[in-house]
Amino acid sequence: MTIERHGVTRRWSDMVIHRGVGYFVEVPDSPELPPREQFRQVLAQVEERLAMVGSRRENLLQVTIYLPDPSDLAIFNQEWESWIPEGHAPSRACIHSQLAAPGYRVELVLTAAVDES
Fold this sequence. Notes:
Blueprint: E1 3-6, E2 15-18, E3 21-26, H1 35-52, E4 60-67, H2 73-83, E5 91-96, E6 107-113
Parallel strand pairs: 4-5
Antiparallel strand pairs: 1-2, 2-3, 3-6, 4-6
């Protein structure tokens, strides 16, 4: 069994790949930004992480969105809909939940198909 880990620390890996599926979590690098900017930032980070393993946003399989403030959902959906390519939306859930750091306005848990070569 092959499990590939990227960005390994004592507590987590930035991405884990097994049998052509990548698993990862993203939070904004700059939690001091307003919500819309955090959403744009975290989506750009997702794209960068996918590119690091030869994947892209069209290959997202599932995304779980954690928002501490449910009133941010409309803004998040605007950013999401302009970011995700038409016809390539993954399965998705949105959960209202407190996050680990008070400044974060979003956390994403993602799975994506990646090239096994």
